[in-house]
């Protein structure tokens, strides 16, 4: 942490611990089952931006460190209807990202998935989760928020929605930053073009070339909160999308086997715990949202 | 999983999810703060048995996959009095361990630590945690336990205690297995000889050569449940112990820096979630305690 005052460090860690509690309780009340994270797997999320490989050889086979549990979440849908995981992700980002104030190369995301759900179901659930966590922290962690000089506003539902292309037209390439800086409540970005996302995001059958997915942007300049959406589940369409990305089916062998057999339709999202902590605590840098932060390009324990 | 019946898989995952809830609630009620796991660090638990290294290079530096968070827990004691973490551990065990039915090379342990606590405090806390989780699962997961044909007994407190040397004398080298098979309640092993454990376990000042630590053995043949104890915190004594083990101070550089400055005395333990799931669900193999099991020597997703 950059912050050195022990009582501020304690306040942040207390709030983060409460966040985990509130989020998990909220989901359990709605019938979600918590499953264990996966750290090593022969397959992981290829992401839509380049990262350095985090590979480890175990018993002669190559394993990747989890960049996200997307494929495992989809496979879990064969057994469970609603799941969540506090999932540690390793993404060895370009060292340039050290300066963003919102990137860590190791972080935890609360990752969730619901069988048969729509994007709109997930947006509703997310709005309920976020307003619950903010309202509860505001009520139960008054002393800690005061110490951090953070005045939290409970966002009004439903959150504002902007179509990706409108956002681009109005704010230009850096629309995410601009929207974040110019709003005082969270904003959804929807209808993201197919070419700018991963192969597993489902194409909108009524709007070809666009996805049934969404991003959430925090207000007050805190930037991206989460990504999510409906998932592709049809074997042939997944195959086409992987080829379009220039990726290889063999990278996702076991996932493709399940898809060939039967992958249930689902939707979900993943919300970064450290970014949410940064927003709730009003921290300048995400480095202060973890006792042992791993900032791209920097050495950390 | 080896078990193929979806309703049994669901029952196990439901029970495991409830276990996580009960354990976390129990600890929060006692004032514990949940902190985030650490997956990559330049330093990790050297353990007391050989494992293959799980190393990853990030930005030109070598990081180890966490074998346990012992050093991070001790360092966290500088800021917080009582902590817990659902901590994923990677231990690339010898492939022979595939046959034990109780080893995974990736698993989660509920790891906890308390500043200023004694071994006896930790044994009491552990007995309360374990009886709470068993009693609550027995009450709330009747259907699931019936489906798995598991009859759970609530253990009586205090659990039986056996001194390491007495256990060795009575049962021989495999005393752990023997004690597990011949008891119907959990059994503590205490006063473990210094030479058979890691350098960070505190030596008993009143019984030199023996440690202020403990293991817990599950009954009915389920084997080891957890290890824990009081930690060494004195810089000079830590140095001596590391040298005795033939390890190098440079392996634990940042930890040693904190120890030189001020490492608070503490005690704690780590309890494997999959082993506890196996015991509570009465599973033959630990492979059935995870949706994506990683068994030593076996390929897994």
How many structural domains are formed by the residues of chain A?
1
- Backbone shape of chain A: globular
Poorly predicted regions of chain A are none
Q: Beta-sheet strand percentage of chain A?
A: 15-25%
**Text of the CATH class of chain A:** Alpha Beta
Mind telling me the C-alpha Rg of chain A? 19 Å
Largest contact between chains? A-B, 57 and 57 residues
Percent of residues of chain A in helical segments? 25-40%
Which structural class should the secondary elements of chain A be placed in?
alpha+beta
Query: What gap, in angstroms, lies between the N and C termini of chain A?
Result: 11 Å
The number of helices of chain A is 9
Q: Specify the CATH homologous superfamily of chain A.
A: Bira Bifunctional Protein, Domain 2
Query: How many strands, which pairing sense, and closed or not: the largest β-sheet of chain A?
Result: 8 strands, mixed
At CATH level 3, the topology of chain A is: BirA Bifunctional Protein, domain 2
């Amino acid at each position: 942490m950059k912050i050195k005052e022990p009582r501020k460090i304690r306040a942040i860690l207390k709030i983060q611990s409460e966040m985990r509690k509130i989020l998990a309780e909220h989901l359990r009340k709605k019938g979600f089952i918590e499953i264990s994270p996966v750290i090593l797997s022969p397959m992981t999320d290829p992401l839509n931006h380049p990262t350095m490989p985090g590979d480890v050889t175990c018993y002669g086979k190559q394993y990747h460190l989890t960049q996200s549990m997307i494929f495992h979440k989809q496979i879990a849908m064969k057994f469970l209807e609603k799941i969540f995981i506090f999932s540690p992700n390793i993404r060895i980002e370009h060292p340039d990202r050290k300066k963003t104030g919102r990137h860590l190369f190791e972080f935890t995301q609360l990752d969730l998935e619901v069988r048969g759900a729509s994007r709109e179901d997930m947006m509703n659930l997310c709005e309920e989760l976020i307003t619950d966590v903010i309202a509860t922290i505001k009520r139960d962690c008054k002393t800690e928020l005061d110490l951090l000089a953070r005045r939290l506003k409970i966002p009004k539902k439903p959150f504002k929605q902007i179509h990706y292309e409108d956002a681009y037209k109005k704010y230009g390439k850096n629309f995410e930053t601009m929207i974040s800086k110019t709003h005082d409540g969270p904003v959804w970005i929807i209808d993201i073009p197919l070419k700018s996302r991963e192969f597993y995001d489902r194409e909108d059958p009524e709007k070809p070339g666009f996805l049934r997915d969404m991003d959430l942007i925090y207000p007050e300049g805190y930037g991206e909160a989460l990504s999510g959406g409906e998932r592709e589940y049809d074997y042939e369409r997944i195959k086409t999308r992987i080829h379009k990305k220039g990726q290889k089916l063999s990278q996702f062998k076991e996932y493709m086997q399940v898809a060939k057999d039967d992958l249930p339709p689902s939707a979900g999202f993943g919300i970064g715990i450290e970014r949410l902590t940064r927003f709730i605590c009003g921290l300048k840098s995400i480095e202060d949202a973890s006792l042992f932060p791993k900032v791209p390009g920097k050495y950390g324990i």
